[in-house]
Structures are given as C-alpha cells and as structure tokens.
Specification:
The structure holds two protein chains of two kinds. Chain A has five domains: 11-159, no CATH class; 210-318, Beta-Lactamase (2-Layer Sandwich); 334-433, 2-Layer Sandwich (Beta-Lactamase), CATH 3.30.450; 438-526, Orthogonal Bundle (Helix Hairpins), CATH 1.10.287; 527-678, Heat Shock Protein 90 (2-Layer Sandwich). Helix content of chain A is 51%, strand content 18%. Chain A has helices at residues 2-11, 23-52, 60-80, 85-103, 114-154, 161-209, 229-233, 243-248, 262-269, 314-331, 351-357, 361-364, 379-390, 435-484, 493-523, 544-552, 573-590, 645-656; strands spanning 214-218, 224-227, 273-280, 286-297, 303-312, 336-341, 346-349, 395-402, 408-420, 423-433, 532-534, 556-561, 569-571, 595-602, 607-614, 660-665, 671-678. The longest helix of chain A is centred in the last third of the chain and has 50 residues, at 435-484. Chain B is of the alpha/beta class. The chains are: A alpha+beta, B alpha/beta. The A-B interface holds A 463, 466-467, 470-482, 484-485, 487, 503, 506-507, 510, 514, 537-538, 541-542, 544-545, 547-549, 552, 573-574, 577-578 and B 11, 13-14, 17-18, 20-21, 24, 55, 84-87, 89-91, 93-94, 96, 98-108, 110-112, 123, 125.
C-alpha cells in the first residue's frame, strides 16, 4: 500500500523544473490527478466497453470520439508534468469537454441531460480552480459555443431547459462569488503586498541612507542576502556573490590567518565582533575598513545570518599612520619634548626628556614644569614666560633646570602653544640640553680672556722692552757722539771710527726694535687704526731725525707739500708716518750722493700720495716685486746693513690702510716710491 | 744773553747728553728729573726751549706739555718731545714743535736746538 502511494506520488509529481510547493506545482499536480481520474474512471472503462462489445454493434464514430478525448486528456496529463502545465490543463479540460459534447452528438433526438451538464459544470469548476478567472471565462465561452454548436448541429432536444438554466445561474453565482472572493483576497493581498512593499521600501531607504556598506550575509555560504546602496555600489549585490570573493578577491573563505573573519567569529561565538580589514574596491584598489558583524538568530536561536557593517577608515588609517610617524619622530627626537595641558600639566614627555631630566614618563606626567625648577631664575622670568605663551606666542630662551638627581643643567627651550579654534589646548616644549655648549662657551670665553690677557701682557711687555731698550740706546748713541764731538777731549781717528761704529750699531738696534714692534702689531692681526683729521705737515715732524742723518751724509734733503693737497687729511697719521720713515730711511741708506726728496702731493680728484725719491743706485726691474717680500734685498745692496725688513712691512701697512705702493726705478737712475691713498670723502678740507 | 732751556728727563745719562747738546747749541740749560718740580719751575721761568721726555714717573710728560701750552708767558717757548713710544708721541705731536724718537742722537739734538735758536722758528726749515 505504501509502495502504491509512493508510486502514485511519483507518478503525480510534476517535473522538477517546476519550483516545489509553488502554486504552479500544485496546479500541475491537480491537473495530473484530475487527468488520471478521468482517464481511469471514464475513458478507460468506456474504451474497454467499446472493445469488448461485438464490432457490428459498435458505432465507429463513438469509438473514435472516445479515443480522441482519451488522447487529449492523456496528452494533458503528460503536459501537466512539464513547466507548460497550463497547456496540460487546457488539453485535459478540452479533451474531456470534447468527449462529453460529441458523446451526445451521434444519435438524433438525444437529450442534453443532466449528467452531461454536471460534467460540463465540473469542467467549469476545474477551469476556475486551475486557470483562474480569465481561464474560467475563456473556458465557459468555449464550452457554451461548443455546446451551442452541437445543439444546433445535431438538433438535440433540450429536455430540461429549466434545470440547465438553474445550473448555469448557480454556476454564475458561484463564479461571481469566486470572483468576488478572489478579488477580495486579491485586494487584501495587494494591500498587504503594498504595505509590505512600503515597509520594505522604508527599510531599504533606511538602509540606503546609511552611507557605509551594510549587508546581510548567510553564515553558511557567505553569500550576500541583502545589501544597501553603498554596499551595492561596491558590487555587494544580493544573492550573487560571496563576501570573500568580492572584498578579499579570494576563491574560498579566509582561514582566519591573514585577518580575523567576523563571520566565523559571529557564527562560533554568537556575539557581535569588530575588526579592521583591507578590502578591495570594484576597481581593484584597496582601502581600510572597520568591519562590524552582528549575529542574526532564527527562531531556534541558531545564528543563520550576520549583519555586516563596514566603515571606510582609510583616512583615519592614513592619519593614524601620519600620527604614528610624527609620534616616532617625537619619540626618537634628539631634543627633549614635553606636552603639557593648557594648565601646564605634563601629559607627555619623550625618552630624551627622560634622559635629560632623569624623570621617567610616569614620574613626569601629571606634574608641572615646576618639577625641574632650579630656583636660579626670578619669579618675573617665569611670569614673562607664561605671559608670552598664554598670549599665543612662542617663547624661546635659555634656562637652568634641576635634574632628578639634583644636578643643574642648561637648556635651550622653545615653548609653542597649540591652539584649536583660537583656544590654547596644550603647550609643546622642545628642550635642548646646552650645558656642554654653555661649558664650551665659558671655556672659550675664558680662553679668549686668557689670550687677550696674554696678548695685552705681550703688548705691555713689548712696549716696556722697547722703552727700556731705547733709553739706554739713547745713552750709547748720545755718549758716543758726545765723545766724537770732542766734548771730553779730542779723539784720534781710530777712536772716532770706533765711536761711529758704536753709534751705528745702536741705531741699527733701534731700527730693529721699531721694525719688530710694527711687525708684531701687524702679525697680531690687530692693527690699531685711529684715523683722525690732521695737517699734512704733521707727517714731516718726525722726519727731522732723518733729515739730520741725510745732511750728515752729505745728501740734500728736500720736503715738498703740494698746495693742491687739502689742508686736512683724514687717516691714521701714526702709520703714515711709519711708512714715510721707512721709505726715507731706506732712501738715505741706499743713496751715496745726491738728494732725497719727500713729497706729499695730490694725484687726482680722489687720491693723494706720499712720494720718496732718491738718486741712489736704483733697483733692477726684475727685483721690483721681490723687494717687497719679507727680508728680501737686492743683491747689490746686501752690504748695506739692517734693511730689507722695512719694505715688506711698508707694503703690508699700505695695504691695511687701503692704499697702494708703486716703485719706479732703474739701476743708476735712482728710485721713486709712491704710496697712493684715496682721499676720504667729506673728511678732507 | 743766552736763552734759557729746560730739559725734563728722569734718566741721568740722557739728561747729561741732552744738556750737553743743548748747551752746545747755545742755551743756558737746567735739567730736572721730576715732573712736578719741572712744572713749578716753568711757572716761574720764561724759557725758550723745553726738551720733554714723555715717560716721566709721577706727573706725566703729556700733562706737563698741556699745562705748559696753557701758560701765557711760555707762548714763544719751543717744545721738543722726546719719546720711546712713537705712538704716544704721535698722539700729542700737535702740542710740540718737534718730536724726537728715542734713541736721540746727540748731534741731531744739538743741531736742531741750534737751528731753533738761530731762526727762532723751526716749523719751516
């Protein structure tokens, strides 16, 4: 029995192409059932009847009509198995109507009886059930037309018209009732559907209004069941893709080793889960998302789906990376960095700060910079500092602070206020330990002072030495000459010569001292220049010594001042005098006979010159450059003592004074040294 | 009558040499080694020539030179500065008629003093 039922069930089950349990599936099944019943209880017995009845009594037309109806219903049964089950319905109903109507056709005077009418009405009901209102109407029209045709064709007598009309009225009533009920049901359904749709639309709108992707995943196959607009824009289209294929470009679910899978977590732990992922965009680019998964439970409390909500945190991630970078920079900065609140309470200090001050971060945070106060600075100093930074300006300064171990150190501090919307929220202090630098500065200062003291001492020493040497030299020269003058009795020639040598040697020593002093001053790099206005003839005052020497040597000594020269010159006359003395001294020494001229003259609008000319042995042109080099002397003049030192000093002095020295000389024609200086604008009169 | 000359010099040897030179040039010579004493002397005497050493102990040569230049009776007095420091001498050379840098030659001083006495004016020799 069971097997029979199973067989029947299989026989009457429509093709698997028809969705199971759908309305189509039921209709197909019903059509097949009806077809099977009609075939089994009407056509097959009738066919058998026709076959066993002796042939001569059988009307061949009747048999062929039965066979035709049989074929149509059988075909209907077969069609009902396929998705074209509607054809099956039509064929079944048509075959059976055809048979009923033509069954009454063969004999003249056949009555259209109640039996047939019942069958016809049964067909209408079936049409209504299986084909709906439209199918019913079509079937009814077709049936009425077919009935009319048969009645007209065969002159069938209508035995019980009244009954027929009643049946039709009943059928129409039933039809109307059915239509009304269906309509009622339909509008209710439609309204419910509209409400449902509105609700769905509303929910969709709510979901779409969320700008971040929001979708529901099936926890078993990872497929997307529902998605909002933002999710769809990303390609997360409902029913189509798995989350892993789309957002991770994977062909199978993540194992959880690369990143935690929220779905697995939610499925197993049954609780919401938040994590961060890198997702692919449809164009292949990646971005950072924060993914939140929320479990959806079924009635039994099983996790069936998961609501996933992902927020694009790329900007935040990049900002975080940026902050991390800055943080790294601050953490590893060679300067101490401290961040305080607007009230001046440490919120952050970096490792360099810790090393610099000896206070760890834990110790410093929560404290104020008073922690480091050394007590070396006045209250006003700190007040000024606070005033500056509280007004939004940057303060920079050096201050002494105290370390945790009590030692003091110098720091160069820059404090900058951090302002948000014009309001100071924090202060950032950058500290540089400049103790070593300060120490170095101090040492340098001390060294400099020491050097200066030494230098001053040297200068004093030199001055003293020169003074103390010159006085006795004066006595040597003076007494030698006094003796030579015969003040203490007449000297013989040999004595005279000896005395002259004594005097000359002392003079050379004196020259040497002068040169040495000048050279020392030049080489110390600090030539003291004291320019002032002076009259040109002042330069001649100390030349009297040399004039005297020249005259004693039998040389004419001439001094000229160009009237075109301004009445007052502006320079340091001391050094000009030194230049002149050196040149004159040389001129006298290297001139055997003739003259020495000393001229002060105007060169042009902007220059004046000191000129020393002699009628000496002259200098060959190839030596013109060399004679200005230190200690250089022309070969010819080597026998003349104590010179050479002069010209290099002169050249250097002239250079320092902003002038230029020129030499015009040839052997046997004497020499002219010209020292040209610019006239100081507006200072000469 | 010989003109008067005052030599202000603290070194005795120099004093002797200068005195001899100026004396040979035809002056009556007084040599003083103390600045204050010399200033006192100058207040009371009209001298024709002063040879002044700039490096005197106590009252300095510069002070004496300035004080001397402010004394009306010494208006015509010639001043020869003798100095071992030419820089210092240069700084006050406008006060002097001559600046001689030590060591000073006996003959030179004698000749200069002679010329000064003969011409009565040294500035344009």
């Amino acid at each position: 029995m069971k097997m029979l039922l199973a067989f029947l069930d299989r026989l009457l089950t429509p093709s698997s192409a028809i969705p199971k349990e759908s309305s189509g599936w039921y209709r197909a099944r019903l059509t097949m059932t009806v077809s099977a019943l009609v075939l089994a209880f009407y056509f097959i017995p009738e066919l058998i009847l026709h076959l066993i009845v002796p042939q001569d009594q059988v009307d061949w037309r009747e048999t062929s009509i039965i066979l035709g109806g049989f074929a149509l219903v059988a075909l209907g049964f077969l069609f009902a198995r396929t998705p074209r089950y509607r054809w099956g319905i039509w064929l079944t109903l048509g075959g059976w109507t055809f048979d009923i109507l033509l069954n009454i056709a063969p004999g003249e005077g056949f009555e259209l009886g109640a039996t047939i009418e019942v069958w016809l009405i049964f067909g209408l009901v079936m049409a209504f059930l299986l084909l709906g209102v439209r199918g019913y109407i079509l079937f009814a029209i077709a049936q009425a037309a077919a009935t009319a045709a048969v009645v007209l064709w065969r002159h069938v007598t209508v035995a019980s018209l009244n009954f027929t009309i009643e049946i039709y009225l009943a059928a129409t009533f039933l039809l109307g009732l059915g239509v009304w009920l269906r309509q009622l049901d339909y509008s209710q359904r439609k309204q419910a559907q509209a409400e449902l749709q509105a609700q769905k639309d509303y929910l969709q709108k709510v979901m779409d209004s969320v700008q971040s992707p929001f979708y529901v995943l099936d926890v078993h196959d990872y497929r997307i069941r529902l998605a909002n607009r933002a999710a769809r824009d990303l390609g997360l289209v409902e029913e189509r893709v798995t989350c892993y294929a789309l957002t991770h470009h994977r062909s199978e679910p993540c194992g959880g080793d690369e990143h935690p899978c929220p779905l697995q977590h939610v499925r197993v732990r049954r609780e919401p889960y938040t994590t961060e992922h890198i997702h692919f965009r449809p164009d292949g680019s990646t971005y950072y998302v924060e993914v939140r998964g929320y479990p959806l439970f079924d009635a039994q409390g099983n996790v069936v789906q998961m609501v996933e909500y992902s927020v694009d945190i790329t900007e935040r991630k990049l900002a975080e990376a940026e902050i991390r970078k800055l943080q790294q920079a601050v953490e590893h900065a060679a300067s101490g960095v401290a961040i305080t609140s607007a009230e001046g309470i440490y919120e952050y200090v970096n490792p360099t700060f810790e090393r610099m001050t000896g206070y760890s971060r834990q110790e410093a945070v929560g404290q104020t910079p008073r922690l480091l106060k050394s007590g070396y600075h006045s209250t006003e100093f700190y007040a000024e500092l606070w005033k500056t930074i509280k007004s939004g300006r940057v303060w920079q300064g050096e201050l002494i602070n105290r370390r945790k171990d009590g030692s003091l150190y110098w720091e160069l501090q820059t404090i900058a206020p951090v302002q948000v919307n014009g309001k100071i929220t924090h202060f950032v202090a950058i500290k540089l330990d400049i103790t070593a630098q300060k120490e170095l500065e101090k040492q340098l200062r001390e060294a400099k002072e020491a050097a200066e003291q030494a230098s001053a001492f040297k200068s004093r020493l030199m001055a003293g030495v020169s003074h103390d040497m010159r006085t006795p030299l004066g006595s040597i020269i003076g007494y030698a000459e006094l003796l030579m003058s015969g003040a203490f009795g007449e000297m013989n020639e040999q004595q005279q010569q000896i005395l002259q040598t004594i005097a000359d040697s002392a003079s050379r020593l004196s020259d040497f001292i002068r040169g040495m002093l000048t050279r020392a001053e030049l080489e110390s790099g600090k030539l003291r220049l004291q320019p002032r206005s002076f009259s040109p003839d002042e330069l001649f005052k100390s030349l009297s010594t040399y004039e005297h020497v020249a005259q004693r040597k039998g040389l004419a000594f001439q001094r000229e001042i160009d009237p075109a020269l301004p009445g007052a010159l502006y320079a340091d006359p001391y050094w000009l005098e030194q230049i002149l003395i050196n040149l004159v001294d040389n001129a006298i020494k290297y001139t055997g006979h003739g003259s020495v001229w000393v001229r002060l003259r105007r060169v042009d609008e902007r220059h004046w010159a000191m000129e020393v000319q002699d009628t000496g042995m002259g200098i060959p042109p190839e030596l013109h450059e060399r004679i200005f080099e230190a200690f250089e002397q022309g070969e010819e003049v080597k026998h003349i003592q104590g010179v050479g030192l002069g010209l290099s000093i002169v050249k250097e002095l002239v250079r320092r004074l902003g002038g230029e020295i020129r030499l015009q000389s040839a052997p046997g024609e004497g020499s002219t040294f010209t020292v040209i200086f610019p006239l100081a604008e507006g200072k000469e009169r | 009558m010989k003109p008067e000359a005052l030599i202000i010099e603290d070194d005795a040897a120099q004093c002797e040499i200068f005195s001899a030179a100026v004396h040979q040039a035809g002056y009556n010579v007084t040599c003083l080694s103390d600045g204050a004493q010399a200033l006192e002397y100058l207040k009371q005497h009209t001298v024709a020539l002063v040879v002044l050493d700039l490096h005197l102990p106590g009252l300095g040569g510069e002070h004496i030179a300035r004080a001397m230049r402010s004394m009306p009776h010494l208006k015509a007095t010639r001043l020869i500065l003798a100095s071992a420091d030419d820089r210092l001498a240069g700084m006050i050379s406008e006060l002097a008629d001559l600046v001689l840098l030590k060591p000073i030659s006996f003959i030179q001083l004698r000749d200069l003093a002679t010329r000064l006495r003969a011409k009565g004016d040294f500035s344009a020799p």
